[in-house]
Automatic annotation (TrEMBL):
Homodimer. It catalyses: pyridoxamine 5'-phosphate + O2 + H2O = pyridoxal 5'-phosphate + H2O2 + NH4(+); pyridoxine 5'-phosphate + O2 = pyridoxal 5'-phosphate + H2O2. This is Pyridoxine/pyridoxamine 5'-phosphate oxidase. Keywords: Flavoprotein, FMN, Oxidoreductase, Pyridoxine biosynthesis. Residues 26-150 form the Pyridoxamine 5'-phosphate oxidase N-terminal domain. The keyword Flavoprotein applies. PANTHER family: PYRIDOXINE-5'-PHOSPHATE OXIDASE, PYRIDOXINE-5-PHOSPHATE OXIDASE. It comes from Asaia siamensis. It is an enzyme of class 1 (oxidoreductase). Belongs to the pyridoxamine 5'-phosphate oxidase family.
Length: 203
């Protein structure tokens, strides 16, 4: 690891979306698998938390986009309690980013466009799967895959109505950079109307 004196501090004058894009680009060059992997924490309407790993599929100044079966545990939780927290951890770079805020559905056009961009087998799997629901036997799922494959023979598998995406609209973004002796560098951007309040945090 570089000497502490050579490590730049997180720039507090940065636009958080630009800084996110820069860190993501570096992760894409250094992470061996899925640099867009992120943990997403959701909660039920009564506040019971749940967390799992998913993949980021879009990021711009509107927010951070991911897709799911709306009838899955994750989808149902977000529909009932439309708030979430994301965590990116890039071990090779010793960096983390935490993002929190409300979620909103993506447009039908966005969902259709992304679904169409997936491989044919991924689309068939999404149609065949009752995501998060009990599966008595793996053979049952494989049989459903064969049925869906036959149904769409010679045509494009279309996005099912229960499969779409969400956009997390960030209200807070925290950037974390490892430094020696656990004297880490942390900075947080908190949304205030049309601007951001920025502060460095103790490790």
């Amino acid at each position: 690891m570089p000497d502490e004196a050579t490590l730049p501090l997180i720039p507090l004058d940065a636009d958080p979306f630009v800084l996110f894009a820069e860190w993501m680009k570096e992760a894409e060059a250094s992470e061996p698998n899925d640099p867009n992997a992120m943990a997403i924490a959701t909660a039920t309407e009564s506040g019971v938390p749940s967390v799992r790993m998913i993949l980021l599929k879009g990021a711009d100044e509107r927010g951070f986009v991911f897709y799911t079966n709306l009838e899955s545990r994750k989808g149902g939780g977000l529909l009932a309690n439309p708030h979430a927290a994301l965590l990116f951890h890039w071990k090779s770079l010793r960096r983390q980013i935490r993002i929190e805020g409300p979620v909103e559905p993506v447009s039908e056009e966005e969902a259709d466009r992304y679904f169409a961009s997936r491989s044919r087998n991924s689309r068939i799997g999404a149609i065949a799967s009752d995501q998060s629901r009990p599966l008595a036997d793996r053979a049952e799922f494989e049989d459903r895959i064969r049925q869906v494959t036959a149904r769409f023979e010679g045509q494009e598998p279309l996005r099912p109505a229960n499969w779409s995406g969400f956009r997390l609209v960030p209200q807070q973004m925290e950037f974390w950079q490892d430094r020696p002796y656990r004297m880490h560098d942390r900075a947080t951007w908190t949304r205030q109307e049309n601007d951001w309040a920025v502060t460095r945090l103790y490790p």
